[in-house]
Amino acid sequence: MTAHAEVLDIVAQMKAAERAFVLATVVRTVSVTAAKAGAKAIIAADGTIVAGWIGGGCAKGAVLKAAREALADGEPRMVSVQPENLLAELGVSAGESRDGIRFASNMCPSKGTMDIFVEPVLPHPSLVILGASPVALSLAAQARVLGYHVTLAAPAAELTAQPDADAIIDGYQLGELNDAKRFVVVSTQGKGDEAALRAAIATKACYHAFVGSRRKMASLRAKLMSEGASAAAIDDFKAPAGLDLGAITPEEIAMSILAEITVERRRGQRAANQSASRK
């Protein structure tokens, strides 16, 4: 197996395992460089190079910095590593960006130029649904269409149909979940509300919601707090879940919840796009 094929094989494995990483590809070289156009490297979330090679220290530092930023905001970027005299001719400094290109200085004796495309590959966003209600089942099916990795947790005896989910858990003991941007929705609707909420509170996520009225959530809040649950953690839940679209059917309620999750999921990207459009 060639080095190029090995890198692509590992890319496929890491994507299947829902692991975050960066694929760095040398797209252009000028003069003498250690790596040539087409060279690739996989950079893991912890900054280690898992496979491949894009040259030595001349480019490595700049690429690893760009990789960390790409994993943080989910946006690809181009890095151009050039000797100081060429940067001066362009009127840019090391670390400066122009027209979407981040420039870095090549301090190696070779004095070559390398352009490297840094592409983040992120796991599917994770939607964890606790409950077997009609809303829960509809939410799972709709989320899968939108590219979420769906985990549905509910007692098996309560499932009247096979959920459309990537993972199904019998009960509310969630255990280890895939490492991704996570959204949690409790949609038990009267069956196991407290147990599901306790599991959801213990699950780290950027969005927690409860399918039920404010009055129902207030009652459950008081009960859970009497058992020692954190008031701040409970108050982090959006109840009722979803945007106010006037939804009535389970399918419509599920759609309103996904709309609200989409707002949360795209929040940072919307801000970045709006900032870029003003430039």
Automatic annotation (TrEMBL):
Domain XdhC- CoxI stretches: 16-81
Listed Pfam families: XdhC_C, XdhC_CoxI
Gene3D superfamilies the UniProt entry points to: NAD(P)-binding Rossmann-like Domain (3.40.50.720)
Coiled-coil boundaries: none
XdhC Rossmann domain sequence ranges: 127-261
Superkingdom per UniProt: Bacteria
Entry-linked PANTHER family: ALDEHYDE OXIDOREDUCTASE MOLYBDENUM COFACTOR ASSEMBLY PROTEIN (PTHR30388), XANTHINE DEHYDROGENASE SUBUNIT A-RELATED (PTHR30388:SF6)
Name this polypeptide is given: XdhC family protein
Organism from which the protein derives: Bradyrhizobium zhengyangense
